[in-house]
Recover the amino acids of this structure.
């Protein structure tokens, strides 16, 4: 599930983007209150919408605006994270907003599946985390630490030594928390992957969850808000009241009922727009961590993991409620 950012056609017109953002950027779970997260003005979705407008596909472009005008996470999944972290947090700070970032460079990432990769060694990873943290400065961000990394070990990945991975995750949590204003959420899988929340608790504790702001749930997955909140509440009880965030980028229609439910399932929809208005004191925010329209991997006709897939993005937007 690598999330590289390939080039996309054409810059988005600034006047058009401003109009889109004015109309859509601040709609949260409970109405039209301003939200704190930063929206990338030149995202792949924004470029796609602009291209379709030039081609006369105005209806499709308007649907793509549902993605382009929402804050989404940037994934740091290769060496040298500093420049992108610095650029995103600086742009967000200038706009009076907060960037959302996903740290995704743990050694033996994705247990050898579609998003194989990560740091070559533990020492390289620690140095990478140090660079990431230093680039944050005092600007702050919401940082999601290593999607899938804990849950894959709990699920039985044999490519990693649990003790070593948990130590690296704890290092990342502790180092990132030293930066002023940074909110750190350690990934804790989803309610469909490890349904018994108690099975995650000790691994999360060993990985530093109790020193983080909380955990992240449903990253790149499709579990409903209700199921994810129940799961988060159960985890919180065993983690000393820790809070959580939920990835709602593609869960509008809930999980797929067929096989390979995690990989480009058909018929899915955009979910709750990013917001801190959640009506649950333990739930800090709904976030779009997975960038809607980026492939999960070469399944169901999709491109490589992380590559932009306009037709899938369009389906997510078309199926969204409102």
């Amino acid at each position: 599930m690598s999330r590289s950012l390939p080039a996309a056609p054409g810059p988005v017109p600034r006047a058009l983007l401003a109009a889109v953002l004015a109309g859509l950027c601040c709609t949260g779970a409970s109405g039209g209150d301003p939200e704190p997260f930063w929206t990338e003005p030149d995202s792949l979705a924004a470029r796609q919408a602009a291209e379709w407008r030039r081609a006369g596909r105005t209806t499709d472009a308007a649907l793509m605006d549902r993605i382009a005008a929402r804050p989404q996470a940037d994934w740091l999944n290769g060496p040298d994270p500093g420049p992108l972290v610095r650029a995103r947090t600086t742009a967000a700070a200038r706009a009076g907003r907060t960037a959302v970032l996903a740290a995704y460079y743990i050694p033996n990432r994705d247990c050898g599946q579609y998003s194989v990769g990560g740091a070559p060694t533990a020492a390289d990873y620690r140095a990478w985390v140090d660079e990431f943290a230093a680039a944050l400065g005092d600007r702050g961000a919401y940082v999601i630490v290593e999607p899938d990394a804990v849950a894959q070990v709990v699920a039985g990945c044999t490519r990693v030594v649990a003790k070593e991975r948990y130590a690296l995750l704890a290092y990342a949590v502790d180092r990132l928390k030293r930066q002023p204003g940074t909110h750190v959420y350690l990934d804790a899988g989803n309610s469909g992957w490890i349904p018994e929340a108690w099975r995650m608790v000790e691994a999360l504790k060993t990985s530093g969850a109790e020193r983080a702001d909380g955990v992240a749930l449903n990253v790149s997955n499709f579990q409903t808000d209700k199921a994810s909140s129940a799961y988060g509440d159960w985890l919180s009880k065993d983690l000393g009241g820790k809070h959580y965030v939920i990835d709602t980028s593609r869960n509008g229609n809930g999980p797929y009922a067929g096989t390979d439910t995690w990989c480009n399932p058909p018929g899915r929809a955009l979910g709750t727009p990013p917001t801190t208005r959640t009506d649950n004191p333990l739930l800090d925010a709904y976030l779009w961590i997975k960038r809607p329209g980026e492939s999960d991997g070469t399944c169901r006709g999709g491109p490589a993991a992380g590559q932009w897939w306009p037709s899938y993005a369009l389906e997510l937007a078309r199926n969204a409620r409102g």
